[in-house]
Design goal:
- The chain is mainly α.
- It has two domains: 47 residues, no CATH class; 96 residues.
- It contains eight helices and no strands.
- Helix 1 packs antiparallel against helix 2 and helix 5 runs antiparallel to helix 6.
- The longest helix is centred in the middle third of the chain and has 25 residues.
- The chain is extended and about 60 Å long.
């Protein structure tokens, strides 16, 4: 039944309509085995295959599909689509906090708290988990990202110390993100992804 499967990519997995065939396919192909601690494909298709309501599709498939349609490189998709999906809950929670309560500090604290958590706890745990794999991080891209992050925090500190923000200040603050995306795009197109 599965003898005619080519192992070129994950697209062959979607040729099968029933979860038993998909489970067998995932188990029989070594390149689908997770290199991490959790084999999500096996959990999704084998453990929860007959109860798909218990397991939902993960964001990476959608991100891959949108990246393919929009012809985005993985690097550009990571700083645009993935960041949008990751930051959307913070955005909406902050909008509600600033517009529906008298204390806008909740919205600001949630944004800064989230940024601090990602840049310290998440980065620390990921660094700990990948130390045995000897993964090299591009020095130039790391410095670029840290500079943009610190610059945005500095501008936020200036805005808070002034005590008010104008429309021009808001537009300038949002345009920093587009400058960041353009810097990453330029680096990607000039160096071909080597400095990412």
């Amino acid at each position: 039944m599965l003898s005619d499967i080519s192992v070129d990519g994950c697209t062959d997995l979607h040729k099968y309509s029933d979860y038993d065939s998909k489970c067998l396919y995932v188990k029989s192909n070594a390149h689908y085995r997770s290199k991490g601690y959790i084999n999500y494909l096996q959990i999704f298709y084998c453990s929860f295959g007959h109860s798909p309501i218990l397991a939902s599709n993960y964001f990476c498939n959608n991100l891959e599909g949108l990246s393919y349609i929009l012809r985005l490189s993985p690097t550009i998709a990571g700083v645009t689509l993935l960041s949008l999906g990751n930051g959307a809950p913070d955005f909406f929670a902050s909008v509600v906090s600033f517009t529906r309560s008298n204390d806008g500090a909740v919205g600001l604290n949630s944004i800064l708290g989230g940024a601090f958590f990602v840049s310290s706890a998440v980065l620390g745990v990921i660094s700990f988990l990948v130390t045995s794999n000897e993964i090299a991080i591009g020095k130039a891209s790391f410095i670029r990202d840290v500079i943009f992050f610190l610059f945005s925090l500095f501008i936020l500190l200036v805005i808070i110390s002034i005590g008010k923000i104008t429309l021009l200040g808001s537009i300038s603050y949002v345009s920093m993100y587009f400058l960041y995306v353009n810097a990453i795009s330029a680096t990607y197109f000039i160096y071909g992804g080597d400095m990412m």
